[in-house]
Amino acid sequence: MKQQSLFNKLGSLLFTLWLLSLVSFFLIRMVPGDPVRLMVGDMGLSEESYNEIRQNLGLDKPILVQYGDYIYKLSQFDFGQSFVTRAPVWNEFKEKLVATGELSFFAMLIAIITGLLIGIYAAANRGSFIDKTLMTGSVIGFSMPIFWWGLVLILYFSVRLELTPVSGRISAITDIDSVTGFMLIDAWFSDEPWPAFKDAVRHLILPSFVLATVPLASIARMTRSSFIDVLGEDYIRTAYSKGLTQKKVYFKHALRNALLPVVTVIGLMIGALLTGAILTETIFSWPGLGRWLLAGVEARDFPVIQSGIFLIGSLVMLLNFFIDILYKWINPRLRV
What we know:
Elements: H1 2-29, H2 35-40, H3 47-57, H4 63-75, H5 89-124, H6 129-143, H7 146-160, H8 183-188, H9 193-231, H10 234-241, H11 246-275, H12 278-283, H13 289-298, H14 302-330
């Protein structure tokens, strides 16, 4: 049964990856615009030169032949070369993934810690003014347009108070060597660690908070709902009858049992952060996957779009796999 379940999961994974490659390949080709014309701009281009460029890019072949070539290269882990930069897509993806990963990690850290605390506190004060205020705030946070929220914070904290930079990952005057690609780590091991690290944190904090807004609201609401359900269970009343403090009951008995639906939301939000950071990265000029994919769409850079979406989708499915393992660690009953 376990082997059959494993084969079913593997088959489902491969089928999903194939659908992802199909959608990413044909969807970008439905968008109006010729990649060759967009590359050369308004400069004069003879018909012969135009056809030669299309042939070099492989765009002269029938669409199904192009898709067959794409799948064949994918099977060899060859993700193609960018039409614009002529650099391997895999190399560009790795570079941009580090920037998005750093931003998403701290955004998720803010969302998880703050969301759990708000949800637990609201559940502990169910029906009170504090509970209603916190849940109203979470609804507003979930409904907040990210582009508007980001601009408001920039105007207040960056323009008026001058506490944070407007854009980028590090100031141009800060000289650090890119070793790991993670700006905080590279800054800490630079020649002047503290000024460089402080500068990197100042660039990171505002976009992280903006990106964390929606998952924070979702985690807070789910934590409150799950905690309220768990607090009504018999074993919680038994724990109180044994004389345990509220803090011990909440964090030793209730938290772990209430975490399962919360982990589900966190898993979905991680995928959403990787794929939905386009607005945040555009507003703050953050050189991550979001801006990279947006630039690829604007330039009709087919290899970047089709392979970028495929790689991000594969990463999200891998994260969901680890979330599934985490379920079983949190709730041993699921291991049966």
